[in-house]
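Dear colleagues,

For the upcoming journal club I promised to circulate an example of a predicted protein-ligand complex. I picked one with flavin-adenine dinucleotide because it came up in last month's discussion. The inputs are reproduced below in full, followed by the predicted structure.
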Amino acid sequence: MSTSPDTDFPEIRDAVRALCAEFPDEYHRKIDAERGYPEAFVDALTKAGWMAALIPQEYGGSGLGMAEASVIMEEINRSGGNSGACHGQMYVMNAVVRSGSEAQKRQYLPKIAAGELRLQSMGVTEPTTGSDTTKLKTMAVKKDGRWVVNGQKVWISRIQHSDLMILLARTTPLDQVTKRSEGLSCFIVDLKQAIGHGLTVRPIPNMVNHETNELFFDNLELPEDALLGPEGKGFKTLLDGLNAERTLIAAECIGDGYWFIDRAAKYAKERVVFGRPIGQNQGVQFPIADAFIELEAANLMRWKACAQIDAHQNAGAAANMAKYLAAKASWEAANACIQTHGGFGFACEYDVERKFRETRLYQVAPISTNMIFSYVAEHVLGLPRSF
Ligand SMILES: Cc1cc2nc3c(=O)[nH]c(=O)nc-3n(C[C@H](O)[C@H](O)[C@H](O)COP(=O)(O)OP(=O)(O)OC[C@H]3O[C@@H](n4cnc5c(N)ncnc54)[C@H](O)[C@@H]3O)c2cc1C
């Protein structure tokens, strides 16, 4: 059932749907139960070129825009899959496209496009500072032509399924900068070289099948040219990528939302209790209709964010608002879906409980709802800073 009036990019939708159809519910359910990584699925997406959508053609990618990339992510989630296994490849890599030197682009992008390298980890969050990103404590100090990194990160995803990570560290102490967003720098870390040589990784078991880790840096040495973007301007380098991240995740939530609504509507038509389909009862219909309306509205903001990013405009407000609206709409759709399924919503074989867990994450990560409210209050409405 197609619930979206949006007919944009039908060729991309059809092609991604056809690929996803080769990986049915049973595949994703088994991977979830085993807490495994969907290697075959991610490989197929990579080989088909979908993961290289945002890489410019001159570096071996297809040079598509954010709108097209968002459709790819949406379709993965709409098919029952979880883009969380691989979405980092799109938005983390985007930081290299936007901020990398020519040498870095030539070194990494063609190999990422060809599927020889995975760049799908981004190390920002720290245990003692959390959402207060500019206070992060991991330090990178220049010494004898190398960067020496010490500190700790938490919740860093896909480390065990990535070759490279973008790391945000402080290069000038906080008390020596005039603005707290200054003095932070981004680095490209070769994970295979780093692990066991100054970087220790400890997995965090969690509610979803999402590989995420604590990282401990103990005098990790990085080459001088590991710096991504200008020294001290890492927060800006990161922010450019974060708007892409938020917009792509909004699209994933839209995909999840349509999946929940499709499943809820189908089950409501089929399940007969009290001698009639449960979907004939307005008490069952209305939450599904409500969630659909919210989802359609969120989708409009997603397209606005895509358009602004593709036009190289400041997409901060639209990207944050799209992520907020879409995560909320998909969560409402998830609740309507599980309620419609009654007890069967809790049975693994219906996949509702798996998608329910997966979509819940997006009200916390990569940015929690309150931080979006705070951004809009301060940067859009001009209200005084609260922190
Ligand atoms: C599965 C998973 C994967 C992740 N992957 C990554 C990753 O790959 N890379 C990475 O860098 N990070 C990652 N994260 C971290 C994620 O971005 C953070 O969890 C998130 O930004 C919130 O930070 P925190 O957990 O430290 O919460 P805290 O900052 O401790 O906040 C806790 C709660 O308090 C609220 N709060 C805090 N301060 C205020 C305030 N001043 N006003 C109002 N409310 C406030 C927050 O909104 C939140 O709801 C991941 C997290 C999870 C769960």
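Two points we might discuss: The longest helix spans residues 234-270. The radius of gyration is 21 Å.

See you all on Thursday,
B. R.
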